[in-house]
Design a protein that fits this description.
The complex is a heterodimer of chains A (112) and B (115). Chain A is built from no helices and eleven strands. By secondary structure, chain A is mainly beta. In chain A, a hairpin with a 6-residue loop joins strand 4 and strand 5. The radius of gyration of chain A is 13 Å and the shape is globular. By secondary structure, chain B is an all-beta fold. Helix content of chain B is 0%, strand content 50%. In chain B, strands 2, 4, 5, 6, 9, 10 and 11 form a seven-stranded mixed sheet that branches. A four-stranded antiparallel sheet of chain B has the order 1-3-8-7, with no helix packed on it. The chains are: A mainly beta (112), B mainly beta (115).
């Protein structure tokens, strides 16, 4: 049972445009959400997070939006840069649960 | 400072053999996690350590899998009698305190191939 879903395995975006990566979850207990970025042959690196008490969190070019009623979150990258080409994983957890539950990832390709 | 390191980076083994994977967490991090990523899948939680004890082993897929952590630092994941379905990238992560909102820092992973 996939509790965190990333339904788009891949996405291509022109350099300078906005990249939007989507994630859906089913477990209502999740109250903390994260995005990780992964380059080939490297481990995932933390990008940005959001608590369920917020609906938006921004960090430079990266913004995460959370819609609790729809159990949906999205990561916006603007403007997209070639170095953003990577696999992006959405993850979720809740207070008292130390492990992260990950989605299957979306491969983002930025076209120069 | 040094990040999380894992060894070996690649391991090819024959079905039925035992393998040991090693993780060196960031110095001072009390929490350590093992995940694995099979082809086309997301990261799957295996086990969590707080210090030397493992309060959550719920993700270990079978009794062929075991892990230990000594001295609150290095951890080894052992897979006995490996099967082809064990082929995956095994990732280790550590965090400062283990609280759910604490950032987990990942190592580069060990790619295990079982022939």
């Amino acid at each position: 049972d996939q509790q965190v879903k990333q339904n788009s395995p891949s996405l291509s975006v022109q350099e300078g445009r906005i990249s939007i990566l989507n994630c859906d979850y089913t477990n209502s207990m999740f109250d903390y959400f994260l995005w990780y970025k992964k380059y080939p042959a490297e481990g995932p690196t933390f990008l940005i997070s959001i608590s369920s008490i917020k609906d938006k969190n921004e960090d430079g070019r990266f913004t995460v939006f959370l819609n609790k009623s729809a159990k949906h979150l999205s990561l916006h990258i603007v403007p997209s840069q070639p170095g953003d080409s990577a696999v992006y994983f959405c993850a979720a957890t809740f207070l008292g649960n130390e492990k992260l539950t990950f989605g299957t990832g979306t491969r983002l390709t930025i076209i120069p | 400072g040094a990040g999380v390191s894992q060894s070996p980076s690649n391991k090819v083994t024959e079905k039925g053999k035992d393998v040991e994977l090693r993780c060196d967490p960031i110095s001072g991090h009390t929490a350590l996690y093992w995940y694995r990523q099979s082809l086309g899948q997301g990261l799957e939680f295996l086990i969590y350590f707080q210090g030397n004890s493992a309060p959550d082993k719920s993700g270990l897929p079978s009794d062929r899998f075991s892990a230990e952590r000594t001295g609150g630092s290095v951890s080894t994941l052992t897979i006995q009698r490996t099967q082809q379905e064990d082929s995956a990238v095994y990732l280790c992560a550590s965090s400062l305190t283990g609280v759910g909102t604490d950032t987990q820092y990942f190592g580069p992973g060990t790619r295990l191939t079982v022939l």
